[in-house]
């Protein structure tokens, strides 16, 4: 029946099914069990609930000539928990699969559901990773995995021009336009129709060209990584060279010393390496990777490593800078994920399948088109009544009714919403702000809250060491000032500063985190390249050696070998290293990190009694404070350092002191925050730094005014019978700090906050308290967020969660960060801006090559200008369409219609050029204290359209009736021809001239656009000629 429907509808039904795949499936398929389905209808879980039709494919393993299995329980994959074993149908040796957004899923016969393939199961423990995959896969298992998982390649095809053309032509806009043009051609409007066809062909051509260029650019970006030569090992054949697209999950990858890009995600199991993850984070700082410990436990390897699991994983697309083999052999890694399952593949998929933005503007535009369509239906009924009354032929009646229907809905309305985006994107690029998601530019015009990272965003990247406060005998000693120029004397604090870091020597330069570099430079010690150092000291090959420099004071040590690192993690807020003094057998552990975190690992008797008071003295002045600690390890020489867990050694430490670092504000920070405040755009700080330091920076930058008060919020987990609680403390200024902190009474049981002037209070809390509030005081969270300004000690996951909670309160949220630990938050925000030197960072939709926050108001300005331009064009087209509809309807009353050239002049020469030039106006140089309207279905806009349309209708009807009463008026002989002197047409021309709504609060005056001014002048002259002819 469907085939008959296709034929009798001349393909219209097939086109409808192309637009609505769900209807296609319901019409052509019979509902059945998922296990028996040949076609599957998928629906997204977001609010859009978009349907996709997928066909089930069969993977035939029999062509691999597998060895015969005697029983149905025999395994084809050594990993008995692998989903592949549960998916193979026996004895047919077939697997059911579907591909969704470049990811393959296979049917799990035992779980009765489709499971993702292309990665190792997360259920594997650390021991499983080493034991099952440490010796490589067999050739047979490699072939099975390769056939089921697909090649290890991120393949982005260059879409053929005919496919792009076909997809563009089948767009509902062009289908409607094809129907309209067919109708106009049938009525003799040849010149007008040809002009519209030429413009449509040009538009389609430009769109196809742009899509083709994007496809080529993305293809070239990923193609070079698909053909990397790697060394892989198998059980049968040992190690050999092969192309990277042959890799499968579970393969052993040998990392050689030269620089190279990683073609897959892999878990490091032997040796260490240094990688540059700039492609992922936007920040090109060397990152140390350590091997996964070989421990016998049943916990998942990710669960075992907790938030720190990334330190064992090498991500696809990142560059291996340096490898550190152990005495066991070369640096080896187990392939974890391949193809589009990798970190880079996920980023490419986010470009290919961007998350749809639920912007109210687009929903309202659709509603507006429906309203105009209903008006068109009324016009269709009106035409039928008029032509039937005049006893006109049915064919002519239908044709004229459809003509009036097409007039009411200007086909350019959908495109009108994007007119300002193209120009805004070009202006942003000229200001070194790059965008990979142009649709978000309009949303930037609605931003009313911006979240900022602190270090590297509001403050300078580089830190200046202010001083060291050593601790001895549970007492703080005199402050050592680095400004004095006196070399730091030898001692455990000096040992910690010299060795507790992740710096490396690369190309004879010390590279790494700016904080680590500054700390190491102040010790006046030197770092030797590993290849040089290893020949002079009996230490493991993976170690780095630091030695006293010529400017140091007499140090009683020859040097320190850094044997093992537990790298810094934002979630753990600390790092530590295991070291050994050259010539000695004893191992030492040094730790540095957040003072609150480090002291929790120290013996209480070693922490000074006035620790909290001393810490506040410096954090309230805006200093960044790092704590140092030490422990002497009593371990034998044969201990396997790579298998040590940090929990085993990070305990019973001795507190060494506090390192005070000065982190100055960037010169652009304060003016930008003042500009945002004047524009009534909230600014919020989300940082991993200390709470007191963050509050001080917020005050110094103007984020919190000097007259405002800060309420510190501290939440506690429930303990036994004691429920979860929240403490509210009023933070006084520095002069009153010594007098203590004032408590504020809050009714926790009723989840209420005292009624006060909200503008005078700012809440500040840390990540731990935020997590407790989310868990135990969910109803209180919105009230806290409304006045929350400083969120400190926030992990990357908590940053993303906070952005999402703000969005739930109907905020349009912007996020600005350096990209290092903000990737999740940058993607979650409506407008994420990464400060990166790269032209286009995959960490966020927007990337600014200028490393300061001046890009934020610039982006908001351009977003407002683009949004207002879209509104102006939309309103112009709507009013133009309604005006033309009314004029045409009046002419129908006496069986007349506009002439060919009159439609040509209105639709092409005037309207098209106005729409194209209206968006050329620059953004207004200042941010107004109110946002442009974000919805079309709003009283001001509706009132504007209704009043304008009403006045137009009255003027047209009055002019129409007045002319008919004149003694010189006579009926036209040919009802299908109109003259330019017709008063109805002249009035319509006049009304269309008044249609655009000009907005000057968010974009510069339209007179600043020379093209627009010339177009308006030309239109006015043209209309004058019409009136005077």
From TrEMBL:
Q: Which UniProt keywords apply?
A: ATP-binding, Glycoprotein, Magnesium, Membrane, Metal-binding, Nucleotide-binding, Signal, Translocase, Transmembrane, Transmembrane helix
State the GO CC annotations. late endosome membrane
Membrane-topology annotation of the record:
Multi-pass membrane protein
EC number(s) recorded for this UniProt protein: 7.2.2.-
Principal subcellular localisation of the protein: membrane
User: What residues does the P5B-type ATPase N-terminal domain cover?
Assistant: 1-108
Xref: InterPro entries: ATPase_P-typ_cation-transptr_N (IPR004014), ATPase_P-typ_cyto_dom_N (IPR023299), ATPase_P-typ_P_site (IPR018303), ATPase_P-typ_TM_dom_sf (IPR023298), ATPase_P-typ_transduc_dom_A_sf (IPR008250), ATPase_P-type_domA (IPR059000), HAD-like_sf (IPR036412), HAD_sf (IPR023214)
Assigned protein family: Belongs to the cation transport ATPase (P-type) (TC 3.A.3) family. Type V subfamily.
Q: Can you name this protein?
A: Cation-transporting ATPase
* Species annotation: Gopherus agassizii
Q: What phylogenetic lineage does the species belong to?
A: Eukaryota, Metazoa, Chordata, Craniata, Vertebrata
